[in-house]
């Protein structure tokens, strides 16, 4: 289960040509439980969603205490010090920054005092109208100390100081546009919020009398909770001494779940919005085999992201599955440097071709996607240098042509290879004998009849939420 | 010049029965100067005003950078790292907390972003209506991250987001009650503000084209600037590329300068609101001699705070001045622990009686004041144990009977010995043969005809600013 | 069609023991139409819902013009001056005050300028938390010129000055509790809003390309529009140059339509929330006949409110229907004075018994309800004095025991006869031989299976929206 | 005393080429007095300052009642109804609109409810930054119902809802720029405010225990009060049950009293800012005689505005004073129509030349000023047609070249004849044999050594308060 985490850690740096994971959130309300430690384990299970900083806030009915730091959860949080965070409610956050730079002041949860007492907040996603909101808050006298869009949410909630906290959250949801899955802690309650499109996942679990909220169901498993259901788009879940209640800030409809969670981001053992990630990924591989018929000797994955799809391809095509690239699991995050030189080195250090498997073979390689294209070319060369006769490069998703503004760092559009080159040009660029991207129809077909519920903006530019207030990049620069 | 600073450091802990110094502020605007380093030196000269934390903020016309930490300026600020703080404007702060606990989040300067860009603020003094203001700000949606009254000022300035910054400061001055000497830094200007009563000192200096603001003129000397004048009560001084301008938020009148600055707080080499501290203190000693005529062999000070007054006493009375108590200058702050056991030990470790001077003598001891009375008794006993025949304890100020709410930590009223005992009872308590406090008339007489301009609330309870919004203690507990 | 209006006019004064009608709203968006005049006709059709004041606001895309005055629409509005109100959008209002006294300043529509330009608003209903909201607005600096709860709505909408107008309305809907059907006019659009419980009616009609909003469908008929549908509880309808769009501020559920609209308030030719008022009323009469079996010679209505139910009673029971009380249609509003003396006189002047019909008969009299009981006793006496042998008094609704806080003036609870007396006591009080109120089950049964969608608070005290913020009366006194 | 008032009434219309008077304010605090009636008399004495609308608000310690209407005080206010306005505090206002059009909604006092209870306000002057302030208030959610700058002041005061009312007024004074003399009534107090430049007059009087505030001291005389002093620029006067207190929102300095008050606006029997208007005007005439030496037979005034200066001219020059133009005092306001045709007629109807006085004479005519020049030419022709041999036209003020933005309606600059023509050109235009304007030095010399305290912007364009936020005209168009 933690294998995938290890993979993500190794791939977390800019050196590796992958979409960046975003953030993971976790929350628990459970009298009599060591909620701080359970949250720590929850973050560990969500570590693949962010490795820049981590934090835990714990409430005991009267106040909120906080621990946060830079790095992995295990680096950021002092497990021994955690035992001093007594209480029955906790939230946690792992962060890869999409907004705000990598400083401790930007680490989450954010904890603050307002007219309602202390409140803490952890956020996964990205607001698209943060510039407008921030300048409105400025002109009304707000003061900011960080550069995150999450501090904007905090200030909006505090601004709506009248009525109930849920009223404030509902009004805030009217203001904020874009992607957000939130867990909020007050002195006495745990609250989960999901944006009306449901861009980012958020699920609800139960362990005995305790309730758990998490970005992915794999974190529920880790703390011994069972998946109850996904939080619905536009829903607010409140858990307090009266149990669980639900409010809908917006009527249902217009779902736009991030399809890339299924392609790459989420852990395969998670179940998101009704779909088992592992099963969905295998179907992508099967569909790839239907779309791209080729005479080949073996099919191999780019580990680890291509594994499940490669297996599906093998099953459907009948071509034998092999593991032709071995991954060095001992490459830590600190080793990988974001300079260009190291990038070249990085691929070789990270992936080792198995010459016995590859030599003389017509090889089908399956990966999930190509971002800038730099790594793919090196992988093709590695395989060819190992004696392969043919190398067919297959992707379990369509070409990424557009930036994401809803919480995934896709780089600027000008860096995306598919924004400038067509498939044939990319094939030549990476030096493969064949190149095929899964068609968008094929990808959507995997989900059966529920095809209208996904955001596919990175493939076709159909942005479900207006992005005109952004500055053209999925990563905001507020500083 | 730094001798006094060393003394203050040694006396800074709670173990020593002294009024607590408060805070010191410094600001400089000077193109071409190493303003960060000059501010560091300025804080060094003001170190006696606060040893809990220190910080420096530097502006270069476009942004503000900050360094701050716990402890003395030399501990809190990395002198090497300081060289990276480039700019032509700087402010600095040394802090002894009167409001808010001793955490880094409460250290100053506070730097924040608001509609006007970045602003930093350093504050000496204490607001008396902070609870009211804070709850008003809360109900209007403000968010707080520290427990200082200074963050209240910051939020008020940001709230008044329309009109000029000076307009905002003027409106804020209408709201805030109590004592405040502020230095404010923006991306392009340095601003000094003094409350309409002028409780705490703030002076203006000049070095060539550069302007300097400081709590005491001794800090001007340190950075090679000359004293121009004191900032007037209710005045706002703005220094920017257009030079210096002045605004009066309130008409003059009702000055209430803290008289205790002259008795104990300020460095003797400072000149405050037109009076030379050293000269004033010597006159207090002379007046003490006029009020308390005694046959004695020698007059000795309690070092260092009683020195100048003892010297004045000797001059006026004709009784020879001796140094009968030697101070161990090597006792650091860290050594002194605030527990009761250590307090007893503390006096002996800190003061060494000179038996040759004291034995067989009728001794007049001069100190500046008595707070709780614990240390004074030990000093009398030390002297008597050294062979003195008589010990007359003289104070260069009247009995402290009331708490200060304007920036000095006098402890709660119930801890003040003079709030509960009369002079004869105190004499018995400390075991002296004679005890005399300088009369309030005598103290005021030292200043000639300008006697109506001082706050003497700690002596007689005449509070110039309403204190009903405080919770009965000069030290606010917002947490 | 105007017969009913005439009736209402005659019964509008306090002298007549009836629940007071509340307000009526109307709106139209139609290029090329004389919208001011059509609104005038619409108000005429809704006149039975309010006779204290009337007003019309017209927008032409650039500004809003207003005419309003005291009295009936025909008195308040200058039909000739109306022709100067050019535009393609209009709203109108007839008012019986539930909040605010009877002054011109309280007449609606309210027209004001805010950051979005000019806006006008007309409101039917009553907010239950207006005191709280008003004091919150006060503390945030709002200024009020009237005493209506509608001005509170106006200020809230203006407060939420950021985002779209619809966003502002949605946030306002989170704040305001209670009953509200609103029509709003901006310089360029017409908006209809109905509270999440749907207390008061509001329907949507169409005439060619023009859209019409009205409290009751009878007003659609008057202006030649067809009923499209009812506005849903929690729905916002926006009509502008782009046509009609709908937003749901709240998810559906928890409907609480005022059942008294069907019993008495609405015009019988209206269709409200799917039910034909005339048909429903006749069924009430039928059900009454099933519940109260009596040997009688004739059944007569109290005109006009009892007519339809009396007819239903006659159909079901087989007892012949007669008109035994004739109404003097020439009694104007101005004639009826609210003093006690005139009340006695009032009944005789207004109702004339037909001796030929009544003499020697066992009479069943059907009315819709009893409020204070003063009039009912006089009617029984009138009939008995005309020679009737028996008088059975039947009501097509259950006893009114509780005040309404959602827009109907039921008087204070202490004035309601059924709050203090049981049915037998009331029978004695009014001097009837028999008295029967329709049972609540019987009333609800008329609506078939949709029995859970009504507010029946005036009968059983089940208030769907918290009334603790009211001051115990359905009529707010803000002055 | 009322003669001057009558004159003003007759000249109040647009037909007569005069600067428009602005507004007059009055306030009284006096237990046991009929304050409503005294205010009515006060307005009567100030009628020359505005004839478009009038109003009176009266407070009795618990609430404020209001009467206002269009026209003269005698038309707008029902003297009998006034007796129902019981209380011990009152304010009144006569208005000639400089901002906002002539509708009842714009008449003053404005009375409103805010967090502090009821407040009424009457304003003389003109704000120069009303557009900026209004849009700021809009963006913070304020709602406006009139088009006056006074409603802006009202909303600002209400916005500053925390601290004392005086604090709110002080903050408001930081925001508002331009000219304002205010009288404010609360349920329990009377407040007078004068802008920091003192553009418009405001004086304080006393009658027994009662205090009076008025635009001019002539109104004090009318109600039997004695002039105590002028309200100082930047001063706030508060009168309540504790008597009178004063606050200074701004330090003194930069006075800019409107010099035109002395030239034309004020009544001659008033004493303003230390100068007797009558005496000052006579000195203007004397100075005119020193500057313009001429052989002439008689000196006559243009009645009534030139009378006092003509008399001074006669005294200094030795030329005999005569009344050569008789004024028809029975021309009412309603008779004068603002069309061009009637303007021609207007002069003849209004002024009748006395042929016996004028025939064969060399005539010096003295008036106070020329605005557009239309009337002056007609007067010259009238005199010449009556047989005068020479006509010398003299003005007791310099040429008006610039618009006023501080409360006087000078017309747009393009309408001012002196903005386009030099003196010789104007002489030809009006057909006089000689034309002389009093020099600015000469005018200022009349005031002795206090020459730096006046606003002379209409003569020389030295605007003491920035006018860049205005739209180029002294009369704002907010609608």
TrEMBL record, chains A, B, C, D:
UniProt cross-references to Pfam families, sorted A to Z: GATase_6
Amino acids binding [4Fe-4S] cluster: 258, 404, 455, 458
Catalytic activity, EC: 2.4.2.14
Cofactor note: Binds 1 [4Fe-4S] cluster per subunit. Binds 1 Mg(2+) ion per subunit.
A GO molecular function held by the record: 4 iron, 4 sulfur cluster binding
Active site: 23
Record domain Glutamine amidotransferase type-2: where: 23-242
Pathway as given in its UniProt record: Purine metabolism; IMP biosynthesis via de novo pathway; N(1)-(5-phospho-D-ribosyl)glycinamide from 5-phospho-alpha-D-ribose 1-diphosphate: step 1/2
Binding site for Mg(2+): 305, 367-368
Gene Ontology biological process: 'de novo' IMP biosynthetic process; purine nucleobase biosynthetic process
Gene3D superfamilies listed in its UniProt record: 3.40.50.2020, Glutamine Phosphoribosylpyrophosphate, subunit 1, domain 1 (3.60.20.10)
Enzyme class: transferase
SUPFAM superfamilies: N-terminal nucleophile aminohydrolases (Ntn hydrolases), PRTase-like
Similarity comment: family membership: In the C-terminal section; belongs to the purine/pyrimidine phosphoribosyltransferase family.
Function description: Catalyzes the formation of phosphoribosylamine from phosphoribosylpyrophosphate (PRPP) and glutamine.
NCBIfam families found in the cross-reference section: purF
Name of the molecule in the record: Amidophosphoribosyltransferase
Source organism of this protein record: Pelotomaculum propionicicum
Native organism taxonomy: Bacteria, Bacillati, Bacillota, Clostridia, Eubacteriales
